[in-house]
Amino acid sequence: MPPSAQPEPRTLAARIALDGTGRANVATGLPVLDHLLGLLAARAGFDLQLEVAPGSPDAVAGTAGRALGEALRGIFDSREVPGYGTATVPADEALASVVLEASGRPLLVSNVDLSDAHVAGFDRDLVSAFLRELSEAGGLTLHVRLLHGEDARHVLEAIFKALGGALALAAEPRKE
Predict the structure, then answer these.
(1) Which of 12, 15, 43, 137 could be cross-linked to 66 through a Cys-Cys bond (beta carbons 3.0 to 4.6 Å apart)?
(2) What's the rounded Cα separation, in Å, for the pair 91 and 111?
(3) Structure confidence by residue, pLDDT tens digits, 126-141
């Protein structure tokens, strides 16, 4: 392996408790991603534990998305839940909408392009790697729409809060 190459990060721990209180214990090595996952867990109302071994920011974001997707797939496969949800959420001037279905047919459709944004010192769009891996591993059809937003940090917060809200509805037990 060349000296500059880093090994692919691996998930050290990933667990979701649907009957939680919205607490997150997240350690990805990317403080901005840890913050965003905390927002997601709070909006979803589930407890999230996630630890990812160090690696490049793109790889860590992808690994975190994949780990969350795998945990969600287990929930959607084993519970009587609707498996679909939608949420539109603001974060200051940003407004994002997320619609998802646990369809078993992974697909990410998004109009969000943060490739030129610089958030928390990163000069790449890490959210696209996260969402792509989340969709693939979770078997989710995922539509992410940015309705308005100029500040990249607010855009990210709106997306992750909306994702949490949509997941809350998708994983809510069916009423008899």
Answers:
(1) 137
(2) 17
(3) 888 899 999 999 999 9
